[in-house]
Design a protein that fits this description.
Elements: E1 2-16, E2 20-27, E3 31-37, H1 44-48, E4 55-63, E5 67-77, H2 82-98, H3 106-118, H4 122-127, E6 147-149, E7 155-156, H5 158-163, E8 173-175
Antiparallel strand pairs: 1-2, 1-4, 2-3, 4-5, 6-7, 6-8
The structure holds zinc ion.
């Protein structure tokens, strides 16, 4: 049984089995983590407020056959006005899709923190995934791209993006 304490950005929280919660974190030390808060432990209610999306929390995790959230303490809450909220929500959705569990990356972590703290820069965030937007072209037409897709890290221009039927996989992207 391994135990970890790490700084974690809450990307999303889903209710499972009515009383439990599945929480998607981006963590400094472990990359993407999908942890479970279990009501049977009678700690979920206590933890709930600390595990709201866009919270930066110090979390204690125990890994057995799944990852359980044992403790969480919110250190910072990112919110702002409606426009900022929408921007953070779009980015959280992108990160949830684009990141792979267990792959920590200090450069990317720093860029994500910058984005959530100061509004950041979409182009720099795409670049910290290892893809330089200024060197990329639209996967369909070769034009200058404006969209970076979470699913396969491909680029699209705005025109091709608008022309592509909106399936679920097209919902997670960074526009830069
Ligand atoms: Zn195009």
């Amino acid at each position: 049984m391994l135990e970890y304490t790490t700084l974690a950005l809450v990307l999303d929280k889903e209710v499972v089995n009515e009383a439990d919660a599945r929480v998607f974190f981006y963590t400094e030390d472990l990359g993407l983590v999908i942890g479970k808060a279990i009501s049977a432990f009678k700690i979920k209610a206590k933890l709930n407020a600390h595990l709201e999306p866009f919270n930066l929390a110090r979390v204690r995790l125990v890994c057995k056959n799944q990852i359980l959230i044992i403790d969480a303490l919110c250190e910072q809450r990112f919110k702002g006005g409606v426009a900022e909220f929408q921007k953070l929500a779009t980015m959280a959705k992108f990160l949830k899709e684009a990141l792979l569990p267990g792959q920590a990356d200090q450069g990317l972590w720093a860029e994500v923190m910058k984005f959530f703290t100061t509004g950041g820069n979409e182009k720099e965030l795409v670049a910290s995934f290892g893809f330089e937007p200024s060197l990329a072209v639209c996967a369909y037409c070769g034009d200058q791209p404006k969209i970076f897709l979470a699913r396969d890290y491909s680029f699209l221009c705005k025109r091709c993006f608008d022309l592509t039927p909106k399936e679920a996989w097209l919902n997670s992207y960074i526009q830069f």
